[in-house]
Amino acid sequence: MATDLLERYEDDLALVKGAAGWTAVLALLGALAVAPLLLPRLGLGYLLFIAVLAAAHVVVAVGLNLLVGVAGLISLGHAGFVAIGAYASGLLMARVGVPWYLAWAGAAVASALFGFLVGLPALRLAGPYLTIATLGFGIAVYQVLTNWTALSGGRMGLPVPALPVYVSGLSAMQHLYYLAVGTAALLVWMAYNLTRSHVGRAFVALRDSDIAAEVLGINLTRYKTLAFGLSAAYAGVAGAILAQALRHLEPQAFTFLESITYLAMIVVGGLGTVSGAVIGGVLLTLLPHYLSDLKQWLPVVYGGVIMLMMGLEPLGLYGRWVRIRLYLRLWPL
Amino acid sequence: MAPGAAVVGTLAQALGPAAQYAIGGLATGSLYALVALGIVLLYRASRILNFAHGDLATFATFVAFTLLGRGAPFGVAVGVGLAGAAAMGAGFYAVAIRPIREGTLLGQIVMTLGLALALSGLMQVLWGAQTEVFPFPLSQTRVYRLGSLVVSEISLGTIAAGVVLMGVLYALVQRTRIGLAMRAVAQHPTAAQALGIPTRRIYAATWALASALGGAAGILLAPVVYLDPFMMLDPFLKGFAAAVLGGMDSLPGAVVGGFLLGVAEALFAGFVSLTFKTTLAFVIIIVVLLVRPQGLLGREYRRRV
């Protein structure tokens, strides 16, 4: 571990540190790029769909972690933001006929607008009050989607048009995979940089004590609404990805249970870290597919895992990994 | 006819249905009040918001339902159900909340969410997701007439049971030694402990009492809606709304909030829109918190760094 000595300030600022770090990042990106070409030949083509779901979940989890883990504002209604993103992109593509990239951007903007709206009362609502307000938001979105049939198709659902295939030779699912995973990678990279910027530090100050943060000159109005808006924009993009993956939107896909599952992702992965959210998002997407025999026990497993994690390892799997790494580095001690 | 007279005439016509809706609202309101009381009891004692409150209540109802199916008398079944919920609440405090009590608000909320998820999953496995009819000694179809108003037997029973339970809780908290200890712990845990009050046991007792109250609400609700693992989700949210409306640290506030919310919701459902009545509860929460954050009967809302 000789590379721990940093020689220049830029070394300390770098997101990826050292040759080992670069090897790991490049290997991961390479594997992600090759996977869709390789998997169908191995007869594992269905994994592509799961990978698209995982990409969507990673995007929600990273956004939710910015809000909950970094800024300390608990949201139990995140499925509402995901739903708004999904329906916004679906409606933009189906009714207005805009191309997919505009629809995804529109989904982010629509969700972010609602995020700002929910963030405004957050100025007056601390702790549990805010939690209930977000819970109410999620349920209100579900109710509106179920009952406003003219807009959402109600329980009958809303079909989402397919993406055009730009590269011949790629199947529709491979195409979607590249778009979804690419978007997810971009948003994860943005989140990494955001948490290290002045915005991220302001969020952390909010989390630790919002009154103290205000005394230090942090504009609570701006940063609380910004946290909600950003997190909702992430959820909106995730909704747009989900809309493409499912191709058919129903309010049933965006219930309170989904909101808790998103929370479970960041708790299991690690509160307050981007890597933790990525790990949690991928893990809790894969888990149901490998535990399909235990389908009915799944909520029990999730609930139990959340409680165990909170009790034994509040920093989540990523926290455990950091500890293992530290142990190895200091090994003979 | 003058427009004024027309308005008076419409008002008089509307008052009849309004009173009718209000009576139904009082019945649901007493259930909301019971749920809100459980939430406020815990929140006052330990600043914990228990998101598993509704699931503990459903659990009590399912236990009572199973016992009734095996031929147990109604009183015994209900008693065992409530005791089961109480034991679960106290056990959850001892196993999950107490060890991380120094944990953050986020940690505690996530803990109760975990329990809620696990418990609702467990109930789905044990009792299935299909809806059941809960046998209840009072009938929904037998009605009494008070002038032009019609009241079903079950509405009257629910209101009566709610009022009796609130009276029992009042007596317990205001007139007994354990109630005194609860109030002391709620006010200042460290001072209470220094004076020899077994704080942890009082917390456990508070959890048990709150869960049993929720269970009572569940059993009273089961005959009106059908029994299934997610039965309490909606009433539980309304209980939260009622608690916020009345003030999170005030027991009388929870009762007032519950009845107010029940009546407001019934009137809204009757005159405006049935489908959006759940949304009303959250509009009320937001408005109350913007205008009067401490709730109707709560004390001053203040925080320190």
Write the layout of secondary structure elements.
The complex is a heterodimer of chains A (333) and B (305).
Chain A: H1 9-13, H2 18-38, H3 46-70, H4 78-96, H5 100-119, H6 127-147, H7 149-152, E1 158-159, H8 172-196, H9 198-208, H10 210-215, H11 220-246, E2 248-249, H12 256-269, H13 274-290, H14 298-312, H15 316-329
Antiparallel strand pairs in A: 1-2
Helix pairs in contact in A: 2-8, 3-8, 3-9, 3-11, 3-12, 3-13, 4-5, 4-6, 4-11, 5-11, 8-11, 9-11, 12-13, 12-14, 12-15, 13-15
Chain B: H1 3-46, H2 53-69, H3 74-97, H4 105-127, E1 143-146, E2 149-152, H5 153-175, H6 177-187, H7 189-194, H8 199-221, H9 233-246, H10 251-271, H11 277-291
Antiparallel strand pairs in B: 1-2
Textual characterization of the structure:
The complex is a heterodimer of chains A (333) and B (305). Chain A has 333 residues and is mainly alpha-helical. Chain A contains 15 helices and 2 strands. A two-stranded antiparallel ribbon of chain A has the order 1-2. The longest helix of chain A is centred in the C-terminal third of the chain and has 27 residues. Chain B has 11 helices and 2 strands; from the N terminus they run H-H-H-H-E-E-H-H-H-H-H-H-H. The mean pLDDT of chain B is 84. Helices cover 72% and strands 3% of the residues of chain B. With 305 residues, chain B is mainly α. Chain B starts with a helix and ends in a 14-residue tail after the last helix. Classes of the chains: A mainly alpha (333), B mainly alpha (305). The interface between A and B is large, with 48 and 45 residues.
